[in-house]
């Protein structure tokens, strides 16, 4: 079986805009994964930061998702995507370059790193909304799942390589050259974004930002397919983050695994996500979009529930790590199947003038549950003990993974049919597609 299906090969060969945007997104993903691990690593190893300071560095990269996603939707709907992609790539590259210069000149401080993390996190929100809103403008509806499969595959590879590369580069080159390498990825993303031409802003009628944000939220929540997908994504992300938090405590304190072994387990899980991303479009074509969506999220939950089942048995460390890794591979495979088609539907259903607002609204709900999940995981571990908490979260995840089974999406055969669920019967017009109020 070829690694890339024929549809992806045709996209990369014949669609110049997609090829440029994907190349830029790939560079940005690798730069982001490198940076996400590099900044806390620098704080711990070079600046001897406290736990609170390390947590602050991680938090300021994530907080903009909650605070600025809806604003990003307004910006993306009012300006050509090329401008947003270029400006945000320049901002992230410049922040990293300045960190390298500060280290070479007088040494870094926590303030430098926190400020850079805030800039990078903010720019990433706008970049991601612009990228995901651009895909349906440059590829056909039938090609969206293949495009998103390639996107998810790239993301999975960067998750595997980014942290390892950060540790290797810091050890071999030192801090300033490592910051330069990370900045170079965003230079590549800038160049790729600059090559995107001919994709204009949707021409949204001018109205206040608050009214635009409200319109996007109402539109997203008014369509049953988008509402169901958004709810499922939020519940899944909450449980995924909650489980990961509990697992880190459980694996270290009760299983006695080292940091390297825990990292190996989670890293191997990304292989499952990579595999799922590459085959998602083919699976959807051979079964149905509805079955792929519902089956993917249930498989993701079942994979994590294998973790507490595995540790019931008295196993050696090597076998234990292998089986735990398998559980995360199954989880990653299921998550990828769901993500490819959930993102594809989110891009295919809205009219062009609502793409940015819907993308931003969806991401706010779907990703806004991550900090809640992390906090809940820690609280459950303290209250119940990590051993019991991991069972509670695993069973709860399996229960909420059935949400889409009660959605009309479960019966959708193709992406076009799923898209039609958001249309008025007999009109061919997407619900909410009328011109926004002035």
Automatic annotation (TrEMBL):
It is found in: Cell membrane. Keywords: Cell membrane, Membrane, Transmembrane, Transmembrane helix, Transport. The chain crosses the membrane at residues 54-76, 85-104, 110-130, 178-196, 262-281, 293-313, 319-343, 355-377, 389-409. The keyword Transit peptide does not apply. This is MFS transporter. It comes from Streptomyces huasconensis. It is a multi-pass membrane protein. PANTHER family: INTEGRAL MEMBRANE EFFLUX PROTEIN-RELATED, MAJOR FACILITATOR SUPERFAMILY ASSOCIATED DOMAIN-CONTAINING PROTEIN. Its main location: membrane.
